[in-house]
Design a protein that fits this description.
Distance between the termini: 26 Å
Number of strands: 4
Strand content: 15-25%
Strand order of the largest sheet: 1-2
Shape: elongated
Oligomer: single chain
Structural class: alpha+beta
Radius of gyration: 22 Å
Largest sheet: 2 strands, antiparallel
Order of helices and strands: HEEEEH
Length: 134
């Protein structure tokens, strides 16, 4: 394992959790996006994480892709809305705010945990350098 393997591995986690937080914020921002019934609803974003092993033997994680939720969304009766169809319906995304908030907390804590690993590894490397100087 290279000297700075812990920082590199935790750095990959930071990147994945940041992408997850980006997807969650996108979902929350579009939770009330209204579309006509003739088109698809805003599709919820899901980050797909996958493990990786580099040639030097270090591990980590990366974003393997983004999966999209149901394009059908949910039909809401709102005859006053300008995008309502003849029956008075509009299409809204099928996103649960409670679930998104829970995922945001998990992603934030994972992000912070990986940053703490980077910080502790940095401290350990600095302590090792100080031992070498004395």
């Amino acid at each position: 394992m290279p000297l700075f393997g812990a920082i590199g591995t935790a750095g990959t986690g930071v990147t994945v959790y940041r992408k997850w937080l980006d997807a969650i914020s996108d979902n929350i921002a579009n939770i009330n996006t209204v579309r006509p019934t003739s088109g698809p609803a805003f599709q919820e974003r899901f980050v797909i994480a996958q493990s990786v092993t580099s040639p030097d033997g270090t591990g980590g994680v990366q974003v393997g892709g983004i999966a999209l939720g149901n394009a059908a969304g949910r039909m809401v009766y709102d005859p006053q809305h300008p995008m309502a169809d003849a029956g008075g319906y509009v299409r809204m995304p099928d996103i649960d705010l409670g679930s998104q908030m829970t995922q945001m907390i998990m992603a934030q804590r994972g992000y912070e945990a990986n940053l703490a690993v980077v910080d502790r590894a940095k401290d350990a490397y600095q302590a090792a350098i100080q031992l070498g100087r004395n």
